[in-house]
Design goal:
CATH architecture of the largest domain in chain A: 3-Layer(aba) Sandwich
Helix content of chain A: 40-55%
CATH superfamily of the largest domain in chain A: Response regulator
Protein name (chains A, B): LacI family transcriptional regulator
CATH class of the largest domain in chain A: Alpha Beta
CATH topology of the largest domain in chain A: Rossmann fold
Number of domains of chain A: 3
Organism (chains A, B): Actinocatenispora rupis
Strand content of chain A: 15-25%
Number of strands of chain A: 13
Domain HTH lacI-type (chains A, B): 3-57
GO molecular function, one term (chains A, B): DNA-binding transcription factor activity
Oligomer: homodimer
Radius of gyration of chain A: 25 Å
Pfam families (chains A, B): LacI, Peripla_BP_3
DNA sequence: TTGTATGCGTTATCAT
DNA sequence: ATGATAACGCATACAA
């Protein structure tokens, strides 16, 4: 049988409550008894049954996270950062994958709520189709959205300041001599697609860059390849192509190269996110890095705030990204 | 207050035990009462408190997993597969990141055990430094190693058949006309480094390929770049370079390209694992794909077997990989 | 400061 | 087949 707190108490010659208090530090315990208890605990190799504790305290020390797809190269870094941020306060991450399906996502959200997680960090699959399920769980457990958010639900959100990211990119492109730029990004189904599109025009204008009509498709390498063809069909290429994320940018590079256009020699290309492979690509991608650690910390902070403060107006926290200049915009 | 099974029982006009049995199906319950109970449960929106259930049944329905580093591009696909395999039986994955540190890993293993996970799936950070902690938790909960294993611990393992993978690669290289090949891989600190090295010679011999002295460093793009230089310094390049994993292969490609050597035109290059970026790289990497879904299923199966059967001789399951031919070995 | 007794929500045991 | 009751391991209200 496992060693329980009863065994510890017995061995230390105290009551169970004293043992509990001595170990948790919830209430003061005499110095001698404290040492007796801790000694007994160590001697017996006692380790708390977190389940029983959670049942009693209503706190599991676990936080649930649902990502659209963990194999999507953007999320592992985020998961890692959140796992790390949580472990700072002794909590653990219960990770679920939504398989890009709002229905699966809904099941996962409920399952996590049933396991009494202390909070839920969610990157919703869809801006609209995920809304109901998210609102439902939010009624029973604190929820923070990360990266993406759903429309029509007043929930906290933490992500990157897309407008600021695009300003960084525009500034850099202007610095290296670009005059004409075009955006290749995702449409407005996702919240990030919308805000990146909205941020692009003003950012370009601020740095006196001439823009052409944006090409909007979806986040993915295939769309980037296709967009490169569309762009060439349009006429002379711009000086620079701004990808809505790294995958699109990589697709653009590949599409261009297949047509004999060299990057960065003939055209500059930038990405967004700094997903793992951006540095591995050839040419390595100039991109905007999301501050994973800060995003993670903010998520955790909002979660704790929600637990403490109860109902509040939803907070939306957009953190500043940083520019990472690599070979795709560096002419030798 | 949350709705508990008491509420359901009351509304259905039965005892709590009957309600429990009707809902769980543990013991037969009269048809009428069953319908009354399920109706009441649905009407009240009852959802079981998994914690309380777990405390009683000693089964949490969660499986812990510890990976060396989730941002390492090999692991997300594995995590996804395991998450999926588990969800088939209604279980969930508690994911931890060891931050490449055996000490952190040890803490995570204990934390998961304290949370009463039903099983543990671990890709150990180090073949030697991870052994003690792994053996310790294995004493209290079923453990299955995946991908890598520790020496000196009799624990189940599921992974890929490295020798078979290298035979696939050698066969393919022979098919496309290569005569001389060299291995660039990791040393023998990791179990995979050891077995891939061991499998290379026989695989090459089987297909009448001439081999040169292998270059052994570590899994990582930097080593690949450096190895490319070492290889060029050695004299004329071989027809093909076999990377110990995809990162090394990518580094080799980059190192060669920096020196003006073209892939695949001048030299063929292969990887191992089919990590996410292998398909995204340029040129896309010919590699050996690990059967993630099968590996995941086997992990789960062994876990369940261990729960059921108690102590057994450790099982080591090496699954057959498949060859993925891409541009890095395809001359146009 | 310490001990006693109760309950968290559920399932298992033992009756009937 | 059904119900009363105890117990899982822990933390806390209350009493001393």
């Amino acid at each position: 049988m496992r060693v329980t707190i009863r065994d510890v108490a017995q061995r230390a010659g105290v009551s169970v409550s004293t043992a509990s208090r001595a170990l948790s530090g919830a209430r003061p315990v005499g110095t001698e008894l404290t040492t007796r208890v801790t000694a007994a605990a160590r001697a017996l190799g006692y380790r708390q049954n977190r389940l029983a504790s959670a049942l009693r305290t209503q706190r599991t020390g676990t936080v649930g996270m649902v990502v659209p797809q963990i194999s999507n190269p953007f999320f592992p870094a985020l998961v890692e950062a959140i796992e790390r941020s949580l472990s700072g306060s002794g909590r653990q991450l219960l990770l679920c994958d939504a398989q890009r399906d709002p229905a699966v996502e809904a099941v996962r959200l409920q399952a996590l709520a049933d396991r009494q997680v202390d909070g839920l960090i969610v990157a919703p699959v869809s801006a609209v189709a995920s809304a109901d399920a998210l609102a439902a769980v939010a009624a029973e457990v604190p929820v923070v959205q990360v990266d993406r958010y759903v429309t029509d639900a007043d929930l906290d959100w933490v992500g990157v300041d897309d407008a600021a990211g695009l300003r960084l990119i525009a500034g850099h492109l202007a610095d290296v001599g670009a005059r004409t730029v075009v955006l290749v990004s995702a449409g407005s189904e996702s919240s990030t697609g919308r805000s990146r599109l909205a941020g692009f025009g003003p950012a370009a204008a601020r740095h006196r860059l001439t823009t052409a009509e944006p090409l909007l498709g979806e986040y993915g390498i295939d769309w980037g390849v296709r967009a490169a063809d569309l762009l060439r069909a349009r006429g002379p290429l711009p000086d620079a192509i701004v990808g809505g994320n790294d995958e699109i940018a990589l697709g653009v590079v590949r599409g261009l190269r297949a047509a004999g256009v060299r990057v960065p020699d003939d055209v500059l290309v930038t990405g967004f996110d700094d997903a793992g492979f951006a540095a591995l690509a050839d040419p390595a991608l100039t991109t905007v890095r999301q501050p994973h650690a800060l995003i993670a910390d903010e998520c955790v902070r909002l979660l704790d705030l929600a637990r403490a403060g109860g109902e509040q107006a939803p907070r939306r926290i957009a953190l500043a990204p940083t520019l990472v200049v690599r070979a795709s915009t560096t002419r030798s």
